[in-house]
Structure formats: C-alpha cells, structure tokens
Fold:
Amino acid sequence: MKKVLFLVACLTSSLSFSQMTMKKLDGTPINTGDILTYSALGNFTDASSSDPAYLGLKIYNSSASNINVRMKLLSMTNATGSNLQFCIDPICVGTITVGSYYPSGSPSYSVIPANGQNGNFDHFINGYAGNGTDPVEYVLKFYMINTFGAETGTPITFTYKYDPTLSTPSFNDLKNAGITLKATLVDSQIEFEATAGGKSEVFDINGRLISSTRYTTGYNNTNVSNITTGVYIVSFTTDEGKKASLKVVKK
Structure:
C-alpha cells in the first residue's frame, strides 16, 4: 500500500512540475489575461490558417513526460456557441458550451509529447456576427490534467474577441463612388443614395453571390428580406468603374 501511495505521489509531483506554454502560429506568446482581438469573421465551415479570423494554437510541453491538455469554455459574451470551429487533437467541434471541456469523448484530452508540441492544425475561428455592433467574446482556459482527470499545473486563460467596430468600412471609397449608405445594420432593405448609376452586388462571407442589381441616380434600395440573418458584403461598381465595398449585418 505504501508503495502504491509513493508511486501516486511521484506521478502527481512530476505532473505538477510539467510546464505548458502556448503561442500563435506566428510564434507570438499567448499568456493568461491576453485578449486576442479580430476584426473579421471567419469561414468556420472551411477553416484556413490564411483566414484573418483564424487563431492557430501551438501548445508546448517543456517537461520530460507527456502531458494531457483540455480546453474549457469559461464564458462567452454576445455569442451562442455556434458558427465557429474549435479543433484540438483529436477532435473538431462547431458548437461549444459554457462550462464544458474539450476533447470530451475518448480520449478526453489531447496528448502533448514530452519536450514536444502539438501539430499545426489546432485552432479557434469565429464566424458569429452577434448584433453587428457589440464585441463577441469567448474566454478559453487551457489546462493540464493528471491520469485521474484532476487539474494540475498552471492553466492559460485568454479571450478570443471579435470586434465589428474595428472593421470600419472605407467611407472614402464610398464617397468617391458617390454612395451614401443609410445604415450597415439592416432589416429588409439596404438603402443608399447614389450620384450616378451602377451595379450593386451582395455576397455572403464565403464569397457566394446572393444578388446583383442595377441602381440609378438618387435613392435606391436592395431587397434582402429573403436572406438569413448574418454578415454580408455589399459591393458597388459605378458605370465609370469606381468601386467600393463594405460589410452589412442582416438582422
């Protein structure tokens, strides 16, 4: 019995000295308390490291033993936990819940090898727009567990934040194209004034063309009552070839 207790104590002690650190794919350290802010929405159905909303997650283990790592969603603000993608070997999920940890299946942890690191695929990407004006936030906690499932070591807790106010449209481009937009948060119509005729196009965040219409001098509107709630790109091209585009949020 004493031998078993001694072995357990040694195992617990070795795990307690395990060191976990995290970085972005570009090598920038991720520390507890960091707020990682993004101005773009990501393509969560086909995530790519080139996506401006993509947060690549590198996890490093500086100890001589393997470590078992989980992520727990501590809180989220102006979010539903959907329209995102979170991957940590060996799982990828499109929905996360406050209070839940990932991976949650079998195995219920990601193994980081001794004196090693994870691969380059683990990531978090958000495609949820919220209300189009207030930030969307996720507080993520990465932590180690021992063989009994108990938390050990020092966790790393940080915030992934999408701030729509940072993606300010190019109003100079709009002005140069003779476009005055009534609002970027719309219900059933995109309303604008134009000083000359041209073509307006609406795209979803995946670049798929939703509608294309001609506009004329004066007041114009584009009907968007039949499209789903979300973020869209409206592109204007005047008959003179001037171009401008911006994001709108469909309520």
The first strand starts at residue 20 and ends at 23. Residues 2-16 have pLDDT under 50 and may be disordered. Helices lie at 2-16, 171-176.
